[in-house]
Amino acid sequence: MPGHDLDLYFNTALSLAKEAGKIVKEGFLTSKNVVAKAVSWDFVTEYDQASEKFLISGLAKAFPAHKFIGEETVSGSNEEPVLTEEPTWVIDPIDGTTNFVHGFPLTCISIALAINKEVVLAIVYNPVYDHMFTARKGQGAYLNGERIYASKETDISRAVVALELSLARDPKLHDKIMNRAKSIISTATGIRVTGSCALSLCYVALGSFEAYQVDHLHSWDVAAGSLIISEAGGVVVDTSGDKFDMMAHRILAAGTPEIAQSIASLIKKADGEMNAIAS
């Protein structure tokens, strides 16, 4: 990419991710100061804040002209983040904070760099298991340096699909989420809930899941994972099946277009049935 040293960007971010992983792993093994955000089930800990501060300060020092979208920074400002064409780091310092708080090891650091509103490099690091998922645009996806590939399954009846059912705790979302889940459960081989959006996306890239779908999320949840899936040969679309926009709060990722379309159709049907009942 003219004017940009992507190798330098990637290697700097990778080094910082490994160091931030030490912060996260230390916190995973000790007691934490847990504070609820806007709702009682959305947590933040001092380790989220320390990890984000470390990552942003390190990247800002190395690349002072770059911009940042970080979960804790945005949460503190109560402003909707805006993605521009400038080089922008999109960071989730601890994805799966509820897992982290409860000592469940599916938690990670997620880092992506977008240039001209397109993600060009991605890092998702689970320091508990020392699993480092990486991707650079046009260069494939990797787990700890080994190339990974998404599932090539095309039949939804043989697919394992990951969802995030905990969002159904919100009374405004409960019926929609559970109705969609019921439709998918009755069709797919199995359902999994990891509690980490970034890792669920990586598991689609790894071929462990055939698909993952969730709405009501944020850019820092999906920025890195979306590139990792694409580079692993998978597909990333909007929940409707249309073009994916990481700022639009919804994602449907799959190993193949056929699985993605099957799930999009199931969701459309489930939503239509619910709307018909409501009217």
TrEMBL record:
It is an enzyme of class 3 (hydrolase). Mg(2+) binds at residues 71, 92, 94-95, 221. Pathway: Polyol metabolism; myo-inositol biosynthesis; myo-inositol from D-glucose 6-phosphate: step 2/2. Pfam families: Inositol_P (PF00459). Its EC number is 3.1.3.25. It comes from the Eukaryota. Its cofactor is Mg(2+). It catalyses: a myo-inositol phosphate + H2O = myo-inositol + phosphate. The keyword Membrane does not apply. PROSITE patterns: IMP_1, IMP_2. GO terms for biological process: inositol metabolic process; phosphatidylinositol phosphate biosynthetic process; signal transduction. Gene3D superfamilies: 3.40.190.80, Fructose-1,6-Bisphosphatase, subunit A, domain 1. SUPFAM superfamilies: Carbohydrate phosphatase (SSF56655). Keywords: Hydrolase, Magnesium, Metal-binding. GO terms for molecular function: inositol monophosphate 1-phosphatase activity; metal ion binding. Belongs to the inositol monophosphatase superfamily. PANTHER family: INOSITOL MONOPHOSPHATASE (PTHR20854), INOSITOL-1-MONOPHOSPHATASE (PTHR20854:SF25). This is Inositol-1-monophosphatase. It comes from Frankliniella fusca.
